[in-house]
Design a protein that fits this description.
Elements: H1 3-14, E1 17-18, E2 21-22, E3 25-26, E4 30-31, H2 41-59, E5 65-68, E6 83-86, E7 88-91, E8 94-97, H3 102-118, E9 142-143, E10 146-147, E11 153-156, E12 159-162, H4 171-184, H5 194-209, H6 224-235, H7 244-251, H8 254-257, H9 259-276, H10 280-290, H11 300-310, E13 314-317, E14 321-323, E15 331-332, H12 337-359, H13 361-364, H14 369-381, H15 386-396, H16 403-408, H17 427-433, H18 438-453, H19 466-471, H20 479-484, H21 486-511, H22 523-533, H23 543-549
Antiparallel strand pairs: 1-4, 2-3, 5-6, 7-8, 9-10, 11-12, 13-14, 14-15
Helix pairs in contact: 4-5, 4-6, 5-6, 7-12, 9-11, 9-12, 14-21, 15-21, 18-21
Length: 550
């Protein structure tokens, strides 16, 4: 080390003292006398300086892997060479050497051995691996007489890097997901409402469990149990039949919470980052694109391209210009970063909602993503209590408990409405026909009719699509009505009626359970929905108090 650098570092450490912190208590202070402490910001700077010297030595050998292309994506950045030689990569103590074959690997290993001896370093065999992209030619590498174990997947900066073309999920990312699922069990102890739980999961759990998921081998099917547990953690297990598509597209930020959406979102954004950033990564991506045998691929680039194509995108200009459904002009991935993020989010959400309409047309036929996106959250926010907002979320997601649904699940002996006894109870009957709630309904209907009359093109009430009548989700509405606030006033009036009807039914069931009172059912099964839907069954001495609160 240069004498001046050594003197400067010694001066920094001469006046500093250290101590250990154990369970919130500080131990005795002491002087550091044995070099730079681990964890000190200077240690990262110094080891990177040392690593850069090693990289320059290997680069000078010109024995790496040559990658050349014919063109690159347009960019405002200065032009660069259309080729590079990959010899060495490194960050801090994560260093990698590359060679095109065994014959060119030997000189690199010899240089590295000399460098280790000159710097007084050794090899940690347990933390070192050898790998090959061609399983027919296994790597045989050793440094200072220490052989490297051959590995097809290893950990780099927290990500599981795979060197084979296997498409199954890697063990490292599976371990992360398993750990994230176990952390979800602790969220119930956090104080706060629906939005607070969403924030905790998106920032502390999903982000941790899916770290570097955009570049590691990960099958979307392996995320489904994680996604189900995320939804149950935020909303509980009390509403079978709820549509997770509504939950992740309209009720929360699905691109940060829903694991399958997070994976797609970050894979496409990673592809966009390659388009905007000049360097070896961009040249490598372009080289793969120019291959005559290009297919879906099993690496990060191939998986990102497949994700875009699964979303209905069609490449029109290299791998950086795409024809996107619902957009007139092509989407250029090297464009404004915020525009790309917004467009990808909207495309993923819209696609998810469209798949729900196809899967469950009885309840959601006619739902229009863009209109719902602008109206649902303001309408939810207009309710004063968390109970009302929770009831509305259940309505919007198609999770309204009905006698018909309970009968189909074996929780009632009949599907007949227990409140009026006139017909099978489904969503249409509860909200628009049941005589038991006519008083509540009639209070709101005049306001709904008045607001509906102000919206151009909205059909008569009995001709509304199922999404509007049964779930309170907006179909495609006149743009001027949405911008002026007329559509929001209409949706708020409709939501007030739907919530009021279910609140009246909740009060009736809280006082005297009727929906799940079948005598042939077990006591545990009879009470199950009430423990989450309307709270625990009341004690006899509490019945009067509940009536006063109602």
């Amino acid at each position: 080390m240069d004498l001046g650098t050594h003197r400067a570092l010694s001066g920094m450490y001469r006046t500093l003292t250290r101590c250990f912190k154990i369970m919130g208590c500080l131990a005795s202070f002491f002087d550091a006398t044995n070099g730079i402490l681990q964890g000190c910001p200077l240690s990262v700077i110094l080891i990177n300086l040392l690593t850069s010297v090693w990289k320059r030595v290997l680069d000078a050998q010109q024995q790496g892997i040559k990658v050349a292309v014919q063109a690159l994506p347009p960019s405002d950045q200065p032009a660069q060479a259309l080729q590079f030689i990959l010899t060495a990569l490194g960050y801090a103590d994560d260093t990698y050497g590359f060679a095109a074959g065994s014959n060119t690997l030997t000189p690199l290993l010899d240089c590295t051995t000399d460098w280790l001896e000159d710097t007084g370093q050794g090899v940690n065999a347990k933390k070192s691996v050898g790998f090959s992209s061609d399983a027919r030619h296994p790597v045989k590498a050793a440094l200072q007489g220490v052989p490297f174990p051959i590995s097809s997947e290893f950990k780099s900066l927290g990500a599981g890097v795979r060197t084979t073309d296997a498409t199954c999920s890697g063990p490292l990312i599976k371990k992360r997901i398993s750990r994230a699922c176990s952390l979800l069990d602790r969220v119930h102890g956090a104080q706060g409402n629906f939005e607070r739980r969403c924030d905790i999961i998106s920032t502390m759990i999903t982000a941790t469990g899916l770290h570097a998921a955009e570049i590691v081998p990960l099958q979307p099917k392996d995320l489904l149990p994680f996604e189900t547990k995320v939804m149950q953690t935020i909303w509980g297990r009390s509403r079978p039949g709820r549509a997770k598509e509504i939950f992740f597209t309209l009720l929360c930020k699905g691109h940060r919470i829903a694991p399958t959406l997070v994976l797609k979102y970050h894979r496409i954004l990673w592809l966009s980052q390659l388009c905007r950033t000049r360097g070896a990564g961009q040249i490598t991506a372009q080289a793969i694109w120019e291959m005559t045998t290009f297919h879906k691929g099993s690496g990060p680039y191939g998986r990102a391209m497949s994700t875009a194509q699964e979303c209905g995108w069609v490449a029109t200009q290299g791998w950086w210009g795409w024809k996107v459904p619902g957009r007139q002009e092509p989407l250029l991935l090297y464009g404004d970063k915020n525009t790309i993020k917004h467009e990808v989010r909207e495309q993923l959400r819209s696609q998810m909602l469209d798949s729900l309409v196809q899967r469950r047309p009885r309840l959601f036929a006619g739902a229009h993503y863009t209109t719902c996106r602008r109206l649902v959250q303001p309408s939810i926010a207009s309710f004063a209590t968390e109970l009302q907002r929770s009831i509305l979320r259940g309505i919007l997601s198609g999770a309204t408990w009905t006698a018909l649904r309970a009968y189909q699940r074996g929780m009632r002996a009949t599907s007949t409405c227990p409140y009026c006894g006139n017909a099978p109870e489904n969503e249409e009957h509860i909200f628009w026909q049941c005589s038991a709630w006519s008083t509540v309904r009639d209070t709101h209907l005049p306001g709904i009719r008045t607001a509906a009359a102000q919206i151009t093109g909205l059909p008569l009430m009995d001709q509304w699509p199922p999404c509007l009548r049964l779930c309170g989700l907006a179909p495609e509405l006149d743009t001027d009505s949405v911008k002026s606030g007329t559509a929001l006033a209409f949706m708020t009036a409709l939501h007030n009626m739907l919530v009021a009807v279910l609140q009246a039914r909740k009060l009736r069931d809280t006082q005297s359970p009727m929906l799940f009172m079948g005598s042939s059912l077990s006591q545990q099964l009879r009470q199950y929905p009430y423990h989450q839907l309307v709270g625990p069954l009341p004690r006899p001495e509490d019945k009067g108090l509940l009536q006063e609160r109602g």
